[in-house]
Every structure is written in C-alpha cells, then in structure tokens.
Amino acid sequence: AASSASSIAGDDADAISLADDYVGRNNKKGQKKAVKLDEIGPRMELRLIKITEGVPGKDGAVMYHEFVKKSKAEAAVLKASHAAKEKLRKQRREEQEEN
Questions:
Q1: Domain-embedded: residue 83
Q2: Residue limits of the Brix domain (predicted)?
Q3: Which of 11, 16, 51, 79 can bridge 63 by disulfide, Cβ–Cβ 3.0-4.6 Å?
C-alpha cells in the first residue's frame, strides 16, 4: 500500500503526542510519534433498498422499496388479503387448541 503523493515523511500532520507512558522503547509521555494509516480494502457505497415493518426475517408490510412502487389501491388490496390470511390462521390455531 503506497502512501499518497501529498504525504511527506516527517510531516507534523502525521504526528501525535503521547498522552501517557507506554510499554516499549522511547514511548514517554509528551513525545511525538509518527502515525501512518493504510487502507486495506475498497471503500463501499451503500444505499437503502427496502424497509419492512417488524422483525427482519418475518413477513412485515413493506414501508419503502427502491425498485417496486405500488399505488395506494394496490397497497390496500395487499393489506386486506394479509388481514384475511391472518384471520384464517388465527381460526385454525384456535381449532387446533380445541382438539
């Protein structure tokens, strides 16, 4: 990993003052030490794709999706079908508990 062209050896911007004494040779409080940082991988650009309600992994309602846009009518139909499925699931669970 090569350092940038603007970085000059012995530059004060790359130096820090030690706050305390540290183990090792010449590591006394107030002494200046050089610091060099190297990047070890690519920088990543992340963006938001999807937001869902509830716990991840469960099927919650989609609050935002970057690629899929739905009208209010489509969202209402999906919400109604989800409510119907949930009602049926609840009825089946109650029936199982009775048996």
A1: yes
A2: 1-57
A3: 51
- State pTM to two decimals: 0.42
Nearest residue to 34 (alpha-carbon basis) of 20, 14, 50: 14
Per-residue pLDDT reduced to its tens digit, 62-72: 888 999 998 98
- The CA distances from residue 96 to 26, 83, 91, 99, in Å, are 75, 20, 9, 5
Per-residue DSSP letters for the chain? -PPPTT--TT-GGGEEE-SS--SSTT--TT-EEE------S--------EEESSSTTS-PPEEEESS----HHHHHHHHHHHHHHHHHHHHHHHHHHH-
pLDDT digits (tens, 9 = 90+) for 7-39: 455 455 677 777 777 777 777 777 777 777 788
Instruction: List, in sequence order, every residue forming a beta bridge with 50; answer none if it has no partner.
Output: 65
The domain containing residue 85 runs over which residues? Answer: 50-98
